[in-house]
Amino acid sequence: MGIGKDVLSSGVVRRLLQMSRAIDAWIEPIGKVLNGLVLITIAVGFYNVVARYIGRFLGMQLSSNALIELQWYLFSAMFLLSFPYILKRGANVRVDFLEVRWGEQRKALIGFWGTTLFLIPFCMLGIWATIDPVLQSWGLLPDGTWGTWEVSPDANGLPRAPIKSMIVVSFALLGLQAISQAIKYWAVWQGYTEGAPSPLAAVELPPLE
Predict the structure, then answer these.
(1) pTM for the full model?
(2) Cα 131 to the center of its chain, rounded Å
(3) Three-state DSSP class for 13?
(4) Which residues are CB-neighbours of 108 under 8 A, at least 6 positions away?
(5) What is the tens place of the pLDDT at every residue in 89-139?
């Protein structure tokens, strides 16, 4: 009977770890997206600065509000998308002077409860608090019909709805990665990944044998 329970438990943990690896594989490419956003943001910012001074010298308008807003839109997207990637890579801020004294299972215990009780509910609360303003930005009216989407009040400004949507996307991706981290923390805490570092390091957990 005990062996049967162990086999069942092992099977459940294996499936949970497979789900965790699938989430990790989905979040990992965000790093390449972030690299691209950094380069584009630098290029747009550099153009805006150069165009401002050259345009002033020539007496011409070489830049526009659209390009200026695009610069901070790109930075905002980069900032918001970095959260799940940072969590996946284990680069988030920790209280290191406490953790250095803890074993892997104790780290995993703290990480599991911190993620489950605080981070995942925080992501759910963030989605709940921002989904209505985002839908309204896309043009959702109080009567349930759709109007025009929100646009910057500045001349030649960009639509606001797409960048506001990144807030919801960021919370959703962070929540998914938090679930993946919670699974890995739990597996280490329960001893299913014996000898493997906890998700505090960006190391793939070994499959259960």
Answers:
(1) 0.83
(2) 16
(3) helix
(4) 184, 185, 186, 187, 188, 189, 198, 199
(5) 887 776 666 777 778 888 889 899 999 999 999 999 999 999 999 999 999
